[in-house]
Design a protein that fits this description.
The protein has 217 residues and is mainly α. The protein has a domain of 128 residues. 46% of the residues lie in helices and 2% in strands. The chain has a two-stranded antiparallel sheet with strand order 1-2. Helix 3 crosses helix 6.
Amino acid sequence: MSRLPLPERDGGGRFPGFDSASQSKHWDAATQSVVMARLGLPVDVRFFTPAEEATARALLDQLLDQRGEPRVPVVHLVDARLAEQQTDGWHYDDMPIDGQAWRDTLAALDEDARARYGCIFAEADLEDQEAMLRSIQERGMEPWHGIPAEHVWSLWTRYACTAFYSHPWAWDEIGFAGPAYPRGYKNLGIDALEPFEVRDARPGADPLRAEKEKGRA
């Protein structure tokens, strides 16, 4: 299988030169097959309609702050889960099953965007998209289109984060070398790196603190 080129993300990243896929020879065959397939060309979208795909892509890019190329193909990974009904095995009793909940909430996003900006969510300015999502997040358990907003937010972020952090490009950004089985780790403890790990080039940079300071500005 052909592999997409290693991206230059985040200006070289916090772990410069680190490539989690280079460790694939230490994984078992089944894991290697599954993980390395994620570096190939994304599979076709099967669950979302074209309109839903556009809205889902804009939503997921906002949630994960993916602004430039190349992007982790999160919408394809989420779509594959929904097409194959690979859910978390549960859903809130005040929401439909995950597939229908995704369809309903994407339609609701477009409905709100049309009411506010006269266009679908994907066509709204990035700042307007962010404002819409922030207003949903800040509702807490108040209803949004008949569903507690907190439960909608949980659905979106659970799928977004699961998809993003299943991809080796995301592992490169956090210095994760992939599954430990069967090799394991020998250097346990704080700052005890394995020979194949790379030290954080910006240990003082805390994106969560920066986001909080941005919100207070």
